[in-house]
Every structure is written in C-alpha cells, then in structure tokens.
C-alpha cells in the first residue's frame, strides 16, 4: 500500500508541470478513477479544504489521501513521493543556473522571463482578489455583490504594507482576526 | 559551525512560516518569500528571486516546493534544499492531517470560515504590494521589450487563461531568439 501511494504520487509530482490547479486532472485520474482511493465527493472536499488552508494543492491532496489510506505513515509516504521528482529535477536546474547564469544567451532568456513572471504573479493576485471581493462570483460593483468588509480589510492591509513595511505574515494574521471579527459582528 | 547552524535554522523557520500562511497556493508564495529573502534577510537580489520563480515554473511539481529547493540550494547546498523542502511541506502536512480527522466540524465552523476569508483579503494585499514594487521596477528600467512582455503575459494569463507553462516557454524561446540574433549582429 505504502509503495503504491509513493509511486502514484511520484507520477503526479513528475507530470504536473504548471503547478497549482494544473495538477488537479492528474490527481482526479489517478486517485479517483484508477485506484478508487477517494469518492468524487471526497475529491471535491479536498479542493475546498485546499482553498481554505495553506500549502500547495498537490501536497494537500497527497496528505489527505495518504492519511485516509494508511494513517500518518501514509501521509508521509505520499508527500515524499509527490516531492521527490521536483527535488531531483530542480536540484539539477539550480546547479546549472548557478553555473551558467552569467552566459549571455542565458542572461537574455532570464531577462525576458522576469517581466513575464511579474505578470503571472499579478494575474494570480487578481484571481485571489476576485475570490475575496466577490466570493468567486461575477464581477459587479453593486454593494450587494461586493464583499464590502473584504474590500475594507484589503485597503487597510495595503495601506499598512505600503507605509510601514511590516512582516507580511503579521498583516495576513491581522487580516484574519479583523475580518473574522467584522463578519461575525456585522 | 554556529554560523552554519544559524543559517539552517533561519532557512527552516522562514520557509515554515511562509508556507504556513500561503493561502491559495501557486504564485502566492513568491511575494511572501521575496519579502523574507530579499527584503528581510537580504539573501537574494530581486532579479534572482524572479529567475528562481521562472525556473520553478518550468520544472514539474508545485511552485512553492520548487522555489524552496532553489533558495535552499543557493544558500546552503543540498542540505539547504532538504531543510527548505522540509520547512515548506511540514505546515500543510500537519494541518491537513489534523483537518482530515475533524473534517466535518471544520467544514461547518463559521468562525474558521470568516477568519480564513479575512486572511484572503490580507494575502491579496500582500500580493498587490509586491506586484506594484516589482512591476514598477520593470517599468522604471525603461525597456520597451520588457514592458511589452509584461503586458502581453499579463493579458494572456489574466484574460485568456493561457496555461502558465506555455507563457513561460514562449517568453524563454523569445529570449533565446533575441540574444542569438543580437550575437549574430555583433559578429557581422
């Protein structure tokens, strides 16, 4: 069982290029259809939990499936399987990056990649903003559709970050406490 | 020796705390890592952080894990990579194990839901702050090529939902083509 968990998540880790949600079809195919380790409902639940909790979705799925099938050892094995391919491939990449990054061709490639990465981060920021302001619903500017509390919390956090440069984790925690209190009282 | 163990401890605690508060996965972790590694510790340059993100994106596996491996290796070799991966994996491992035991109660809890929703707004603010900083420095550098790439990649990702791997690969290919063309021009 443990070996099977390891091998399955090794495959999932190996072929999930693109990260994030790109991994989901792989997980569904292997875990739900091929092995029947999760029911479709449980699979949807993992997606919900992954949205609400920290950590990469792949790791969350591996932990959830592993715990369900074989307890804590199962969770550890599945997670290790999921991380192992990255570990090998990315270590090799790091090695080459440090060795060749001053070559002119590599410099050129990295030069064009950097603005693209900034754009990708911005794009993922916008999806989170949509999730936060409209709960994933359609974008509309009426007060009914817009989550006003979330907008206020966002504006406050953004202002504090710009002016005082605090530790972002403190800001996120503060947002959780403030948001939680406002939602429950209002 | 004590300098080394201090570095190891910092690598672990920083990746652990960053990972513990990365709601939403994917690129969300990059701005948080940048705040820690570039601004707080001064371990990396801004450019290096972006290079590492691009590399992390082009390899298989979660971006958070891949970026952690790159930073760990850069700072302290293979041992460093082991430490940062361990630090990144531990929070979701513990949290999901606990949640899967109390799943029904967790799902029904209103308090948990509202706090997480508030944190989401905070995460969005952190990303907005970082994007403003990094995007601003791309604009300030004044290269029309880089500005154009940034705009095109943003439209492709946010509007047309083009697969990010495709975006990274095409920008990489463009970079190769441009620097080869430049080299040929230099020779001729």
The geometry of chain B reads as globular
Number of strands of chain B: 0
The shape of chain A is: globular
Q: Span between N and C termini of chain B? A: 54 Å
State the order of secondary-structure elements of chain A, H for helix, E for strand. HHHHHHH
- Greatest interface: A-B, 100 and 108 residues
Strand content of chain B: under 5%
Provide mean pLDDT of chain B, rounded.
Answer: 85
Tally the helices of chain B: what do you get? Answer: 8
Instruction: List segments of chain B where confidence is low: pLDDT < 50 over at least 5 consecutive residues.
Output: none
Structural class of chain B: mainly alpha
Computed over alpha carbons, the radius of gyration of chain B is 19 Å
* Rg measurement of chain A, Å: 20 Å
Percentage of residues assigned to helices of chain A: over 70%
Number of strands of chain A: 0
Assembly type of the chains comes to heterodimer
Number of helical segments with 4 or more residues of chain A: 7
* Cα end-to-end separation of chain A: 50 Å
How does this structure look, described?
The complex is a heterodimer of chains A (about 190) and B (about 190). Chain A has helices at about 1-15, 25-35, 40-50, 55-100, 105-135, 150-165, 170-185. Chain A is an all-alpha fold and about 190 residues long. Chain A has two domains: about 1-100, no CATH class; about 105-185, no CATH class. Chain A is globular. The N and C termini of chain A lie far apart (about 50 Å). Chain B is mainly alpha-helical. Helix content of chain B is about 85%, strand content about 0%. Chain B contains eight helices and no strands. Chain B has helices spanning about 1-20, 30-40, 45-60, 65-100, 105-110, 110-140, 145-160, 165-185. At the A-B interface, helix 1, helix 3, helix 4, helix 5 and helix 6 of A face helix 1, helix 2, helix 3, helix 4 and helix 5 of B.
């Amino acid at each position: 069982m443990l070996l099977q968990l390891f091998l399955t998540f090794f495959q999932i880790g190996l072929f999930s290029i693109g990260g994030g949600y790109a991994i989901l079809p792989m997980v569904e195919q292997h875990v739900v259809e091929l092995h029947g380790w999760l029911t479709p409902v449980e699979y949807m639940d993992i997606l919900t939990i992954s949205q609400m909790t920290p950590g990469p979705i792949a790791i969350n799925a591996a932990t959830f499936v592993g715990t369900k099938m074989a307890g804590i050892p199962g969770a550890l094995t599945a997670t290790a399987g999921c991380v192992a391919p990255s570990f090998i491939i990315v270590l090799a990449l790091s090695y080459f990056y440090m060795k060749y990054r001053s070559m002119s061709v590599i410099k050129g490639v990295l030069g064009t990649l950097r603005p693209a990465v900034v754009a990708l981060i911005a794009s993922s920021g916008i999806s989170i903003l949509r999730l936060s302001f409209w709960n994933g619903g359609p974008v509309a500017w009426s007060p009914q559709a817009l989550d006003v509390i979330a907008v206020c919390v966002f504006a406050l956090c953004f202002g504090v970050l710009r002016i005082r440069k605090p530790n972002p984790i403190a800001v996120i925690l503060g947002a959780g406490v403030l948001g939680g209190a406002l939602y429950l009282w209002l | 020796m004590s300098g080394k163990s201090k570095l190891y401890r910092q690598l672990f605690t920083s990746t652990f705390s960053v990972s513990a508060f990365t709601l939403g996965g994917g690129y969300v972790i990059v701005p948080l890592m940048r705040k820690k590694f570039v601004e707080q510790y001064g371990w990396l340059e801004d450019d290096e952080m972006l290079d590492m993100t691009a590399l992390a994106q082009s390899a298989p596996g979660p971006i958070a894990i891949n970026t952690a491996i790159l930073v760990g290796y850069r700072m302290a070799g293979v041992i460093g990579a082991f430490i940062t991966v361990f630090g990144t994996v531990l929070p979701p491992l513990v949290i999901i194990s606990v949640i899967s035991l109390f799943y029904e109660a967790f799902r029904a809890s209103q308090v948990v839901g509202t706090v997480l929703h508030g944190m989401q707004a905070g995460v969005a603010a952190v990303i907005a702050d970082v994007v403003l900083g990094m995007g601003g420095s791309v604009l300030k550098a004044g290269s029309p090529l880089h500005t154009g790439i940034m705009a095109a990649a943003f439209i492709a990702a946010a509007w047309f939902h083009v697969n990010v791997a495709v975006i990274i690969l095409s920008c990489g290919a463009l970079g190769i083509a441009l620097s080869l063309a430049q080299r040929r021009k230099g020779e001729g």
